[in-house]
């Protein structure tokens, strides 16, 4: 007999169904004995940017082991599945609580229900922040034929690589206008950098690592438009980890203090998403704390068989 698992699908970083970024949340009872290989197959079947697997709580509902998978690999952290899973738990089996902890690969992550009039959830994310030396990878711009050097803030020069935690690394490519952002297309090949450039923050053990490209425009003080590109042909409607990486990077440039950023992503895909990032920088210029906030809405639920 196949094992039956309950799942729910949410649109995250929106309060409107069919906008935001879809997320599948699979409940894994203790009796299921689901392997990591099976989780990867299920994530591939959903074929969403991420799928989470929430195991039964071992401490009366205070915390839940949560695994995050893309269709291709397991991730130590990602913002949109963390927000969506926390929202799901606080809306369903933990509806009487105002907080819950997700034990993900990057560390224990408390999620808090926002107080009225705000809606949604807020979480302090695990941070092992690193701004690497800028790197010139010709494919980052060569695969964007509709853009010229004048469309990039750094022209035809190198672009910064920034990590939010070990294993989550992004090219942060700043553009000069929203029009330039709209002219970008998905990449036709993986964007590689040497793992030696990433050091201890590399996600893989080989010679090169496939990179995410987070392109953005600062439209006004504290407000950003962004797009996130991954493997060939892929664009993500909302990427909390990338937004947090960008928030930490921009806040580092501003200096000591508490900074807030409103990141709008997914517009060009017809999946507008609203992501809130709060970054705190200490007197030494170090990223001390990053918080991520957003809403979610349930779209469907069902049962899958393994």
Radius of gyration: 19 Å
- What best-fitting shape do the alpha-carbon axes yield? globular
Number of strands: 20
Structural class call reads alpha+beta
Low-confidence stretches: none
Note the run of SSEs as H and E: EEHEEEHEEEEHEEHEHEEEEHEEEE
Strand content: 35-45%
Helical region count? 6
List keywords for this structure.
single chain, 306 residues, alpha+beta, two-stranded antiparallel ribbon, 6 helices, 20 strands, Phenazine biosynthesis PhzC/PhzF protein, isomerase activity
Explain the overall architecture:
- The structure is a single chain.
- Helix 2 packs across helix 6 (240-254).
- The chain is 17% helix and 42% strand.
- With 306 residues, it is α+β, with helices and mostly antiparallel strands.
- The protein has an 18-stranded mixed β-sheet that branches.
- It has helices at residues 36-46, 79-91, 139-142, 178-182, 195-198, 240-254; strands spanning 4-12, 21-28, 51-55, 63-69, 74-75, 99-104, 107-113, 121-124, 130-135, 159-165, 168-174, 192-194, 208-210, 212-220, 223-229, 235-236, 257-265, 273-281, 287-294, 296-305.
Short recap of the structure:
InterPro entries: Phenazine_PhzF-like. This is Phenazine biosynthesis PhzC/PhzF protein. With 306 residues, the protein is an alpha+beta fold.
What secondary-structure arrangement, pairings included, does this model have?
Elements: E1 4-12, E2 21-28, H1 36-46, E3 51-55, E4 63-69, E5 74-75, H2 79-91, E6 99-104, E7 107-113, E8 121-124, E9 130-135, H3 139-142, E10 159-165, E11 168-174, H4 178-182, E12 192-194, H5 195-198, E13 208-210, E14 212-220, E15 223-229, E16 235-236, H6 240-254, E17 257-265, E18 273-281, E19 287-294, E20 296-305
Helix pairs in contact: 2-6
Protein name: Phenazine biosynthesis PhzC/PhzF protein
InterPro entries: Phenazine_PhzF-like (IPR003719)
GO cellular component, one term: cytoplasm
